[in-house]
UniProtKB/TrEMBL annotation:
Species of the source: Pelagibacterium flavum
Name of protein: EAL domain-containing protein
Domain spans labelled EAL: 24-274
Residues shown, of full length: 422 to 708 of 708
Segments traversing the membrane: none
Length: 287
């Protein structure tokens, strides 16, 4: 039919916008309902200690299976949860579940939890971290909190205070996705992180791109001289593993060793790899 192109396109465009808006609204309203309907799950991905070839930590990653829309990626729903402020409540749920899971693991395996910048600025943060630890009877030394550079972008006095207070509790603080922010190096100067997680984008082409190789080398050396451990994120191939190992990286994480696993499978993996420690966690230390 001979409709005007302009008008037709415009209507099509409008319809597209509509669908996107509706999808977003569905996510917004679905988040809160999802928490009460038990639609959220944590999965856990091991961080491997390269020196001992053992699991040092498990990173908790949030998953959402919406009743109608199905699986929704955290990359999609977390920014929405941040915008509407719901991330504070959702993040508290993550902290509690992560600590409860860690309490079932051998005592030398820590749990890492991602913190949103929004959550970080909430006045409830310190209290909810302490509550999560208490509820699970988990020592603070078994919790790592991962923050991205965006946490340090604003409000820096308040932010640094909170970071130091968490550290004083015995919690470890990791800088996540290192190298992707605007001013990565200045953040390392601002706070003595326990761990630098080198972003996956530097690991990806490590075999073919000399620049990435040099950057990884430099970050590992930098971490060492600042007393910060380094973790390579997103290791998928043996070649990538060899490269990060060769330069003295402390840990790696990635599909090569394991994808993120549901709590039950994570515990099975831990038990399979460390049967002695799982049974008699207190009798196998060197001391
Ligand atoms: P992240 O904290 O950097 O987590 C690592 C992401 O890389 C995870 O994606 C993980 O599944 C993925 N990954 C791990 N190894 C590999 C690999 O070898 N290859 C590839 N291609 N990917 C790998 P995921 O679970 O989709 O999470 C994406 C991001 O969403 C996380 O990045 C984190 O920023 C955020 N996120 C996830 N869970 C939470 C949460 O509970 N709270 C907050 N605030 N953010 C979360
Ligand atoms: Mg992370
Ligand atoms: Mg990361
Ligand atoms: Mg990331």
């Amino acid at each position: 039919r001979a409709k005007s192109d302009g008008r037709g396109n415009f209507r099509f465009f409008e319809k597209g916008m509509d669908a996107a808006m509706q999808h977003r609204r569905a996510i917004e309203s679905g988040l809160k309902l999802g928490l009460t309907r038990d639609e959220f799950r944590l999965v856990f991905q091991p961080l491997m200690d390269l020196e001992n070839n053992s699991i040092s930590c498990m990173e908790a990653l949030l998953r959402w299976e919406h009743s109608e829309m199905g699986f929704i990626s955290p990359a999609e729903f977390i920014p929405v949860a941040e915008e509407i402020g719901f991330i504070v409540q959702l993040g508290e749920w993550v902290l509690r579940q992560a600590c409860l899971a860690a309490a079932t693991w051998p005592t030398d395996i820590r749990v890492a939890v991602n913190l949103s910048p929004v959550q970080f600025k909430s006045r409830r943060l310190m209290e909810s971290v302490q509550q999560a630890l208490d509820e699970a009877c988990l020592p603070a030394s078994r919790l790592e909190l991962e923050i991205t550079e965006s946490v340090l972008l604003s409000d820096s006095d308040q932010t640094l205070e909170t970071l130091h207070a968490l550290r004083a509790m015995g919690i470890r603080i990791s800088m996540d996705d290192f190298g992707t922010g605007y001013s990565s190096l200045s953040y390392l100067r601002a706070f003595p992180f326990d761990k630098i997680k080198i972003d996956r984008s530097f690991i990806e082409d490590v075999g073919s791109k000399d620049a990435n190789f040099e950057i990884i080398k430099a970050v590992i050396a930098l971490g060492r001289s600042l007393g910060m451990a380094t973790t390579a994120e997103g290791v998928e191939t043996e070649a990538q593993l060899d490269a990060v190992r060769a330069h003295g990286c402390d840990e790696f994480q990635g599909f090569l060793f394991s994808r993120p696993l549901p709590a039950k499978d994570a515990l099975e993996l831990i038990t399979r790899l460390t049967p002695a420690r799982a049974v008699e966690p207190r009798l196998t230390s060197n001391g």
